[in-house]
Design goal:
Elements: H1 10-33, H2 41-45, H3 52-59, H4 62-68, H5 76-83
Protein name: NADH-ubiquinone reductase complex 1 MLRQ subunit
Keywords: Membrane, Transmembrane, Transmembrane helix
InterPro entries: B12D (IPR010530)
Length: about 90
C-alpha cells in the first residue's frame, strides 16, 4: 500500500470518495423513493401507477423548497463586495 498511498494522492482519494458517495446517495434515492421505480411485486403488476401525489412529493422535495426562497447566487457576499461602489 505504501507505493500507492502517497501524500500527493490524498486529494484524488478525497475527490473520488466524495463523488462515489454522491453517486451512491443518488442511486439509493432513485431506487427507493422514485415513484417510477417498481420494486414491489404489486406495483410491477400494475401497468400504469396512479400516484400523482407521490410524484409531486418526489419532485418538490424539501431542499428544492428551501432553494426557492434563496436568491440564485453562488457567492452572495463576494458578489456584494465587488458590486458595491466606493463613495
Amino acid at each position: 500500500m505504501g507505493r500507492w498511498v502517497r501524500p500527493e494522492v490524498y486529494p484524488l482519494l478525497g475527490a473520488m470518495g466524495f463523488v462515489t458517495s454522491m453517486v451512491v446517495f443518488q442511486l439509493t434515492r432513485n431506487a427507493f423513493l422514485n415513484p417510477d421505480c417498481r420494486i414491489n411485486k404489486e406495483h410491477r403488476k400494475m401497468g400504469i401507477l396512479e400516484n400523482e401525489d407521490e410524484g409531486e412529493k418526489y419532485a418538490q422535495h424539501n431542499f428544492r423548497k428551501y432553494l426557492r426562497t434563496r436568491q440564485p447566487q453562488v457567492m452572495p457576499s463576494l458578489n456584494r463586495f465587488f458590486s458595491q461602489e466606493d463613495n
